[in-house]
């Protein structure tokens, strides 16, 4: 019987060959693992093309090659599923790991830094890597970005750290007040678009705390008022105490209630913030006229200022991009209480409105630079901005359907001093000031 090499093995070799070609074009060094390996196909050593110097800066890579269409329906991006064990392996070690997906049929490859991508809890929960077909292209132009990934390597030796007690700041806010009533009314609108089209015939920018479920509208608003009655059968409207939904053990009701809370969150900050559908985050817009936006707030009993929508300029004064303070959120129920988990992040635009195609790279750089205190400081800003005691000032009048209260810090019997595990902070010249 003749020996055979499977088609998948051949495609895998084509993927490695493509990566080798790109690394050679970067003038870096390529080392294939070979033999037994647990999830690393090789490594790339950074070399200075101008001097030829090498300094043992290594990026490991895992190659995934395919001849099939890249998974996903978008022309601009695709997602790649990952195994939980692989994610742990890639993100735990001392050397940074990049995932490289090679589209063999179209002779293209795409890459992501696994530690930066899966450092985001929301990304980790999906166990998928989303690639931007423009920003994440793996070609010779990615050499400088790959060098920056190599500089994030952790020290190779770990020793027992002295324990110390410390206070922990949960990234949670307690839902302190809700709408009192949920309104339900049937509608003959055939789609969400048709429903909102009818409403917008009467109010151009209607409030958004309404969802459609099973041929009916569900809302925090009285649906027997203008403009909702124009799209609903108000004669059949029903009213429910909000607790019938917020304390329900019916998973469908709980999902619908969370959907209403998500709508309320977006509506609460609509005056100053916009929603990024792709990353499920809210971010500050510039001030009217495209001016930098700053806010003043009290954190840890101290007055603080933060630039939350800031342009970055070239030497000749042209705007390169805008950096916007942003957050992702998730409502969770603990017993009979509702909380919102706040994850600080950033959003990047070209001109204050349109997405910057290099936003993913900017965000990855910031994530590599940030320490625990940086993230805690951002959360402190969001806590001050969203919590009840500041809502009247921030939003003119307190928002009627949702409010938050701070959660007390937690005492821990032991902790590890930050300086014993974090890498040396580096601030690349091209993004100096992004954390300000």
TrEMBL record:
Q: Which Pfam families match?
A: DUF4365 (PF14280)
Q: Residue ranges of the DUF4365 domain?
A: 13-149
Q: Read off the InterPro entries from this record.
A: DUF4365
Name the domain of life this protein comes from.
Bacteria
- What's the name of the protein? DUF4365 domain-containing protein
What is the native source organism of this protein? Flavimaricola marinus
């Amino acid at each position: 019987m003749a020996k055979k090499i499977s088609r998948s093995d051949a495609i895998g070799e084509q993927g490695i060959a493509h990566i080798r070609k790109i690394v050679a074009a970067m003038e870096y060094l390529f080392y294939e693992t070979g033999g037994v390996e647990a999830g690393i196909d090789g490594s790339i050593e950074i070399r200075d093309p101008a001097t030829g110097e090498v300094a043992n800066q290594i990026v490991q890579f895992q190659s995934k090659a395919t001849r099939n269409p890249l998974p996903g329906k978008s022309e601009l991006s695709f997602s790649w599923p990952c195994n939980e064990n692989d994610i742990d392996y890639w993100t735990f070690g001392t050397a940074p790991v990049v995932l490289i997906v090679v589209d063999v049929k179209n002779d293209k490859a795409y890459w992501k830094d696994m530690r930066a991508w899966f450092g985001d809890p929301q990304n980790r929960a999906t166990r998928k890597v989303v690639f931007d077909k423009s920003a994440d292209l793996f070609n010779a132009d990615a050499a400088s970005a790959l060098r920056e990934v190599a500089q994030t390597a952790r020290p190779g030796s770990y020793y027992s750290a002295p324990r110390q007690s410390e206070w922990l700041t949960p990234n949670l806010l307690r839902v302190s007040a809700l709408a009192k009533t949920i309104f339900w009314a049937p509608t003959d609108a055939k789609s969400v678009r048709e429903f909102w089209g009818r409403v917008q015939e009467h109010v151009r920018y209607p409030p958004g705390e309404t969802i459609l479920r099973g041929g009916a509208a569900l809302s925090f608003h009285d649906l027997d008022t203008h403009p909702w009655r124009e799209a609903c059968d108000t004669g059949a409207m029903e009213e429910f105490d909000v607790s019938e939904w917020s304390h329900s053990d019916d998973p469908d009701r709980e999902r619908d209630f969370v959907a209403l809370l998500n709508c309320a969150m977006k509506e609460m900050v609509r005056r100053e913030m916009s929603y990024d559908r792709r990353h499920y985050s809210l971010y500050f817009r510039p001030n009217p006229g495209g001016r930098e936006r700053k806010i003043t707030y009290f954190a840890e009993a101290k007055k603080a200022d933060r630039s939350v929508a800031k342009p970055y300029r070239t030497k000749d004064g042209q705007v390169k991009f805008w950096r916007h303070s942003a957050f992702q959120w998730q409502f969770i129920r603990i017993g009979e209480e509702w909380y919102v988990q706040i994850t600080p992040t950033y959003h990047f635009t070209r001109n204050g409105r349109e997405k910057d195609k290099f936003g993913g790279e900017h965000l990855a750089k910031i994530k590599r630079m940030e320490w625990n205190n940086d993230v805690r400081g951002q959360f402190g800003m969001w806590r001050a901005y969203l919590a009840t005691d500041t809502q009247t000032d921030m939003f003119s009048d307190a928002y009627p359907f949702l409010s938050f209260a701070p959660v007390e810090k937690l005492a821990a019997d032991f902790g590890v001093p930050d300086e014993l595990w974090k890498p040396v902070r580096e601030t690349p010249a091209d993004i100096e000031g992004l954390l300000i």
